[in-house]
Amino acid sequence: MITLIEALNFRCLRYISRPMDNFHVLVGPNASGKTTFLDVVAFLGDLVSGGIEKAVAGRTRNFEDLVWRRSGPSFELAIEARIPETLSDHLADTGLDTIRYEVALALDSKTQEIQLQAETVLLKAGKCHDGTSEQLEFFPGRVSPPRSILLGVRGRDTRAVVQKVPAGNDNFYSETYVQKGKGWVPTFKLGPRRSALANLPEDESKFPVATWLKALLSEGVQQLILNSLLIRKASPPGQGRSFRPDGSNLPWVVADLERNAPERLRDWVAHLQTALPDLESIWTLEREDDKHRYLMLG
Hints:
Oligomer: single chain
Structural class: alpha+beta
Number of helices: 6
Shape: globular
Largest sheet: 7 strands, antiparallel
Strand content: 15-25%
Number of strands: 9
Distance between the termini: 33 Å
Order of helices and strands: EEHEHEEEEHHHHEE
């Protein structure tokens, strides 16, 4: 689970560092950066899955549009995620419970090409919380921006796994070996336009957590852009059981929950009841003439 999202000089966000939990509601005026905040994760996902061109060109033709107030040559993004317990047992240092991925993108002053100025994957000890709830605040808040959000490897509580060296090699360090010299992995020189995490060696025995993070970003990020017109219509057969971003196959997803995970369906209905207290149940029906499926509310 993602536990922290950070951005510096990214689009309309001068700076934000927001801890995350299972569920959040973002509250803020129009054009305050709520969509941009969520786009941090989506941008990193595009960077890992498709490279710099996909991440940038999918948002703008001009790189400067991605920089706060178009006032500089670069921006920085970072996320942290809690390491699954099934993977933490394989680490050389089981006290490290968080993985962090941070990048800086910039325009090369000579070639005017977009490049990865910095890229690091590191394992670290997460911050402990005492369980007290924080006071609610408006998004994105007023915080003085730091010069950089790039942490790098600092102190005993961090361990580098992937590190791109400017004008140098891309280094990979095993997560699982304890003895010095045993976790060495050949370095590569991918260049400033290729992501090191995207080219992580395919060896889960040495990189169990980084491999998981790579898959999370490249395959596990889904943006929801619901289409109310499609949701109102009955859904034709053959739509699949994985929820589509436009919501067009929702009846088939619910039907699958009815058959295979009724407890999850009940949990979803209970969640909806926080906004629709009169809602009692949701089920699906199939039209006999064309096999389309639609929702019924009770």
